[in-house]
Design brief:
This protein is of the alpha/beta class. The protein has two domains: 30 residues; 267 residues, Rossmann fold (3-Layer(aba) Sandwich). It is 47% helix and 8% strand. The protein has a five-stranded parallel sheet, with helices on both faces. α8 packs across α9. Bound molecules: 2-acetamido-2-deoxy-beta-D-glucopyranose (3 copies). The site of one 2-acetamido-2-deoxy-beta-D-glucopyranose (NAG) has 2 residues, from loops. The site of one 2-acetamido-2-deoxy-beta-D-glucopyranose has 2 residues, from loops.
Length: 299
């Protein structure tokens, strides 16, 4: 063998060896392996995997192209209802926000706001002309404010420690928590008032308490409002899997962070929002599905 061919052979071996290493290390190779080993089940990827009743997809946008809003005050169960609706219909739900945490865990349509999604999450006031209708998810202010406070501190499923409620505000007169509550009770009332009085499209009020108590009926009412029919077994599957992965489990035991003054302010705000809901239903002649206002008034 000539020196030249020995050199060529050696070079080829070295080249092959290195390309093999590069191939093994390449992220594409790693990604493919994961992809093939779990098949097309998006649901099984990641530590906090979601198992879908059926793999969700996008829907055709329809002639108006405008989506239905899923409006709520933060902490009112918006993510949980999105999860339930995705399970029941097999259609993704969108959001006016881009929450990267949610995007990789079962909500790939974050930041999608057109009618290719079933509903679009928003915590904002109704924007002019963006939505054709709205599902307004209403939770009592106490639990919503507490859930959102927990989310700010601990993320989507954690619970804030008791010390978090005792920190002083900058002016040292009230606790930071008291300032937070009074600001948020006002915001809670204002958000519902705007959707019930300023939004031009139809509004379906869904009370969080009713959604928890009779998830099946609440889903049927929402799907009816969306003109979306699904087979009974899909509703059943959604209800059976209703716990999902986005419910906060741990509750603070024997500690109520709300003072009597806070309860008074919340009761007044709840009564005013309940009156607005009743008024909305009366104005629109909706008699069959008047939500039980007791649910809203009960703590
Ligand atoms: C959200 O969507 C808009 C329009 O589709 C796009 O311009 C924007 O970059 C997106 N935001 C993020 C954070 O991906
Ligand atoms: C459902 O259908 C009714 C009757 O056709 C229509 O008035 C209503 O706007 C539709 N609702 C939604 C959310 O598209
Ligand atoms: C509400 O219903 C009443 C009686 O059924 C009817 O006379 C009235 O026109 C309706 N109003 C609206 C806004 O549909």
């Amino acid at each position: 063998m000539s020196r030249r061919s020995i050199f060529l052979l050696a070079a080829t071996v070295v080249l092959l060896y290195f390309s093999l290493i590069v191939f093994m290390l390449s992220p594409l190779h790693g990604a493919r392996q994961v992809y093939y080993s779990v098949g097309h089940r998006y649901a099984l990827r990641g530590a906090a995997g979601v198992t879908w009743c059926k793999e969700p997809r996008y829907q055709p946008a329809g002639p108006s192209g405008r989506a239905v809003a899923l409006a709520s005050f933060p902490g009112s169960g918006n993510t949980w209802l999105r999860y339930l609706l995705q399970q029941a219909t097999g259609i993704w739900t969108g959001s006016v926000y881009m929450d990267f945490g949610l995007k990789v865990r079962g909500f790939p349509a974050e930041n999608v706001t057109d009618a290719t999604v079933l509903v679009v999450k928003t915590h904002e006031s109704p924007p002019p002309d963006q939505f054709k209708a709205a599902v307004l998810l209403v939770r009592n202010p106490r639990d919503a404010i507490l859930a959102d406070f927990n989310r700010h501190l601990m993320g989507h499923v954690g619970t804030a420690p008791i010390s978090a409620f005792k920190m002083k505000s900058p002016d040292r007169k009230k606790s930071a928590w008291a300032v937070y509550v009074s600001k948020n009770v006002a915001a809670w009332e204002a958000l519902h008032a705007r959707w019930l009085s300023r939004f031009a499209g139809r509004v379906l009020v869904v009370l969080y308490g009713a959604l928890v108590r009779d998830t099946r009926q609440a889903l049927l009412d929402i799907l009816d409002f969306l003109n979306h029919t699904v087979p009974e077994e899909d509703i059943y599957c959604a209800v059976v899997n209703k716990e999902g992965i986005y419910r906060r489990r741990k509750k603070l035991q024997d500690f109520d962070p709300f003072s009597a003054d806070m309860y008074r302010a919340m009761a007044a705000a709840r009564a005013r929002v309940a009156a607005l809901i009743t008024d909305y239903y009366r104005r629109h002649n909706i008699t069959d599905k008047l939500p039980s206002i007791g649910d809203l008034l009960a703590q």
